[in-house]
Amino acid sequence: MFAARQATQSVFGAVQRRAFSQTAANASKVAVLGAAGGIGQPLSLLLKLNPRVSELALYDIKGGPGVAADISHINTKSTVKGYEATPEGVRECLKGAEIVLIPAGVPRKPGMTRDDLFNTNASIVRDLAKAAADACPDANMLIISNPVNSTVPITAEVFKSKGVYNPKKLFGVTTLDVVRASRFISQLKSTDPANENITVVGGHSGATIVPLLSQSGYELQGAQLDEYIKRVQFGGDEVVQAKGGAGSATLSMAMAGARFAESLLKAAQGQKSVVEPTFVDSPLYKDQGVTYFASPVTLGPNGVEEIHPVGKMTEFEQGLLEVCLKDLKGNIEKGEKWAKENP
């Protein structure tokens, strides 16, 4: 029991079991849209364990109140409420939220790419983005629903259409790519994965995921390098295949979403120099038509505080980036076009 508790606490890094007074000044309402799904349930559980969250609001088309009732029995201070799948329900869920996480959507199945999910998940994200733009336009929006390279631009177009778009508060959650890249290098080098933090830039699918091993002082060669890159870029396929059609990377994605939400809460509650990788409206490659890009970002009380450049790369990594930018441009344009044609 003690070991399990320790493992859970490690998700939140420096927050581990330290006392945290939840006064009005640092009370934070967090909403999860899609809370009864494969990602939504463990994500909601991890957020209930986070002492920085004072109010947890859970919504889904089915099962939101049930998940909320279950999680509400956990002995942490935050209150939990589930909302019915009605316009009034989603509006009440979102009202006053500081952070909104959207893991809603259908999971991948064997043989599917993230783009195969596009048509179904695009509609889901659009409708939830509309609700958020109306109910909590100043909230930090964390998009988990795939394909993130396209669903983030869709969310942006919805907010733009309503005149409330703030590029500093829209995030595609790419944290899982960093988690995987760090874990996989630790397996190769026999290091502690908790001490690894491999920089990953680009997007959040296949060849748009670019790990920069050289920036952490690592150098792999030949087949080992190729296998590492492939595993980071297509690690989700391992899970999809292992689950045999029963789901995708839900548990690891929930952990990554909880980690990113924790970083935003730290920054909002006054901690300085909080840096996380995330897919945002970025100037780094706009001259090449790539308007959104994932790179390390300093977070602050108002969301994005500073977008960091990619930095030095090897020739091999530069080649990966060039492929990434070409694919990413198409993913972004696909999302923007769809949003404009399907308002």
TrEMBL record:
Domain Lactate/malate dehydrogenase C-terminal: 174-337
Chain positions recorded as substrate binding sites: 108, 114, 146, 180
InterPro entries linked to this entry: L-lactate/malate_DH, Lactate/malate_DH_C, Lactate/malate_DH_N, Lactate_DH/Glyco_Ohase_4_C, Malate_DH_AS, Malate_DH_type1, NAD(P)-bd_dom_sf
Enzyme class: oxidoreductase
Biological processes per GO annotation: malate metabolic process; tricarboxylic acid cycle
EC number: 1.1.1.37
Catalytic activity entry: (S)-malate + NAD(+) = oxaloacetate + NADH + H(+)
SUPFAM superfamilies: LDH C-terminal domain-like, NAD(P)-binding Rossmann-fold domains
MF GO annotations: L-malate dehydrogenase (NAD+) activity
Residues annotated as domain Lactate/malate dehydrogenase N-terminal: 29-172
Pfam families: Ldh_1_C (PF02866), Ldh_1_N (PF00056)
Keywords assigned by UniProt, alphabetized: NAD, Oxidoreductase, Tricarboxylic acid cycle
Active site annotation, chain numbering: 204 (proton acceptor)
Gene3D superfamilies: Lactate dehydrogenase/glycoside hydrolase, family 4, C-terminal, NAD(P)-binding Rossmann-like Domain
UniProt binding sites for NAD(+): 34-40, 60, 121, 144-146, 253
Cellular component, GO annotation: mitochondrion
Self-association state and partner proteins as the record states: Homodimer.
The family this protein is said to belong to: Belongs to the LDH/MDH superfamily. MDH type 1 family.
Name of the featured protein: Malate dehydrogenase
Lineage: Eukaryota, Fungi, Dikarya, Ascomycota, Pezizomycotina
